From TrEMBL:
It is found in: Cell inner membrane; Cell membrane. The gene is nhaA. It is a multi-pass membrane protein. The lineage of its organism: Bacteria, Bacillati, Actinomycetota, Actinomycetes, Cryptosporangiales. This is Na(+)/H(+) antiporter NhaA. It catalyses: Na(+)(in) + 2 H(+)(out) = Na(+)(out) + 2 H(+)(in). It comes from Cryptosporangium minutisporangium. Keywords: Antiport, Cell membrane, Ion transport, Membrane, Sodium, Sodium transport, Transmembrane, Transmembrane helix, Transport.
Length: 429
C-alpha cells in the first residue's frame, strides 16, 4: 500500500502531553469504578438467584422519600433517577472540558469521535428495529445505543494499558458523546407525560446555579441545594431527572478568567464528583438494576429467545462495532486522511467492539421502555449482560495482541533525554 504523503491529514493523532496525563488520570479513576460496578452487578445477580431473592426484591422496592414532587421513590428508582444524575453531571463536565480546553477543541479532531458516536448510535437502533419489526418490542429501540464509560474504560485499562493515548481519548470521547445522545433520546422519546410548570420552575434554580458558577462560586452550601432543586423539578416534570445532571454540568465554566494558579472550576468539580460517580453512584445503580432472576439455562434460553433481547445483543455486538468502525473508515476515505503513524485499522475495530459494552444506560433505557418490573425488562437485562460480556471478550481478544506491540513502542518512547518530566515524543514538532 502506498505510503501517505507528508501533507496527508491524520486521524487519531497523538495529543498533547497535558491531555495524555489527563486521560491517564481518568482511566485510573474509571478502572476502580468499573471494578466496583462489576462487583455490584455480580452481587445483585447472585442475590437475585439465591434462596434469599425475596430479600433483594424487598430492598430494591423499599419506598423512601416525601410524596411532594413525586419523590416517594423506591431505592431502585433513587439509584436510576438520582445517583445517575451525578454520573451524567460528570459526563457533562467531561464533554465540555474536552471541547473547550482539550485537544478536541479543534473541530477537525472532534469530528471523528463525534461522527463515530453517531454511527454507533444509529446502526444499533436500526438493527434492533429490523429484528423487532412486526412485534411489540419496538419501544426498546434505543437500548443498545449507549456505551458504558466506566465498564469500557475498566476493560481497556486492564487489557490495553499500553495503547496510544489517542485511542483511549477516542474511546472516552465517543462514550461520553453517545451517552449524551442516549440522554437526549430519553428526554424526547421516553417521557410519558410532561408537566410544563415544574419544567419551567426548574429553570430558576438552574439559572441561579449558572450565574454563581460563572462567577466562580464554589460554596457547596449554595450550589448543592440549587442543583437538588433543579433535579427535583425536572423529575416532577416527567422528563428523566438525569437530564438535569447534564444541564448542570454544561453550566460549569471550563476556562479560568485569569491565569491564576490551581484548577479551573470544571476541573475542581470533576475531581470532587468523579470518585463519587465511579465509586458509588454507578456501582449502586448496577446493584439495583442488574438483579435479574435468570432461572438456570432454561431461563437464560427463554430470555434470549425474546426478540427484544435478540435485538439488544445484535445491536450491542454487531451494531456498535460496525457502526463506529465504518463511520470512521468513511471519514478517512472521503477526506483522504490516514491513521496516525503506528496505528492500524484493527486498533479502531477493537475499540469499536469494546464500545458494545452498554451496561448502565442500556439498563436504564430498558426500564423506561418496558417497565422496571416487567418480564420483558428482565429479558432485556439478561440481553444487556450477555451482549456486554460478548463485546468485552471479543475486544479483549483483538486488543490484547495489539497492546503487547504498543508496550514495546511505549518503552522506547518513554525516554526523556532532557530529564524535564515530559517524554521527548510529546516535544517533537
Amino acid at each position: 500500500m502506498r505510503e501517505p504523503t507528508s501533507n496527508t491529514s491524520r486521524l487519531l493523532r497523538r495529543g498533547s502531553w497535558a491531555e495524555a496525563r489527563r486521560i491517564a488520570e481518568i482511566l485510573r479513576s474509571e478502572t476502580v469504578g468499573g471494578i466496583l460496578l462489576l462487583v455490584g452487578a455480580v452481587a445483585a445477580l447472585l442475590w437475585a438467584n439465591s434462596a434469599w431473592s425475596g430479600g433483594y426484591a424487598d430492598l430494591r422496592d423499599t419506598v423512601v422519600g416525601p410524596h411532594a414532587l413525586h419523590l416517594d421513590l423506591t431505592l431502585g428508582q433513587w439509584a436510576s433517577d438520582g445517583l445517575l444524575a451525578i454520573f451524567f453531571f460528570v459526563a457533562g463536565l467531561e464533554l465540555k472540558r474536552e471541547f473547550v480546553a482539550g485537544d478536541l477543541r479543534d473541530p477537525r479532531r472532534a469530528a471523528v469521535p463525534v461522527a463515530a458516536a453517531v454511527g454507533g448510535v444509529l446502526l444499533p437502533a436500526v438493527l434492533y428495529v429490523a429484528v423487532n419489526l412486526g412485534g411489540d418490542g419496538l419501544g426498546g429501540w434505543a437500548i443498545p445505543t449507549a456505551t458504558d464509560i466506566a465498564f469500557a474504560l475498566a476493560v481497556l485499562a486492564v487489557i490495553g494499558s499500553a495503547l496510544p493515548t489517542a485511542l483511549r481519548t477516542f474511546l472516552l470521547t465517543l462514550a461520553v458523546v453517545d451517552d449524551l445522545l442516549a440522554i437526549v433520546i430519553i428526554a424526547f422519546f421516553y417521557t410519558d407525560h410532561l408537566s410544563a410548570w415544574p419544567l419551567l420552575g426548574a429553570l430558576v434554580p438552574l439559572a441561579v446555579f449558572t450565574v454563581l458558577v460563572q462567577r466562580r462560586v464554589r460554596s457547596w452550601w449554595l450550589l448543592l441545594p440549587l442543583a437538588a432543586a433543579a433535579w427535583a423539578l425536572v423529575h416532577a416534570s416527567g422528563v428523566h431527572a438525569t437530564v438535569a445532571g447534564v444541564l448542570l454540568g454544561f453550566a460549569v465554566p471550563v476556562l479560568r478568567r485569569t491565569p491564576s494558579p490551581g484548577p479551573g472550576l470544571a476541573e475542581h468539580f470533576e475531581h470532587r464528583f468523579r470518585p463519587i460517580s465511579a465509586g458509588f453512584a454507578v456501582p449502586v445503580f448496577a446493584f439495583f438494576a442488574a438483579g435479574v432472576t435468570v432461572g438456570g439455562l432454561d431461563g437464560l434460553w427463554t430470555a434470549l429467545s425474546d426478540r427484544a433481547a435478540i435485538g439488544v445483543v445484535v445491536g450491542l455486538v454487531v451494531g456498535k462495532s460496525v457502526g463506529i468502525f465504518v463511520t470512521t473508515w468513511v471519514i478517512a476515505r472521503f477526506t483522504r486522511a490516514s491513521l496516525d503513524e503506528g496505528l492500524a485499522w484493527v486498533d479502531v475495530f477493537g475499540l469499536a467492539v469494546l464500545a458494545g459494552i452498554g451496561f448502565t444506560v442500556s439498563l436504564l433505557i430498558g426500564e423506561l421502555s418496558f417497565g422496571a418490573q416487567s418480564e420483558r425488562n428482565e429479558h432485556v437485562k439478561v440481553a444487556v449482560l450477555v451482549g456486554s460480556l460478548l463485546a468485552a471478550v471479543l475486544a479483549t481478544g483483538i486488543l490484547r495482541a495489539r497492546n503487547r506491540r504498543y508496550r514495546r513502542i511505549q518503552e522506547e518512547e518513554a525516554v526523556d533525554a532532557d530529564d524535564d518530566g515530559v517524554p521527548d515524543v510529546y516535544q517533537s514538532g
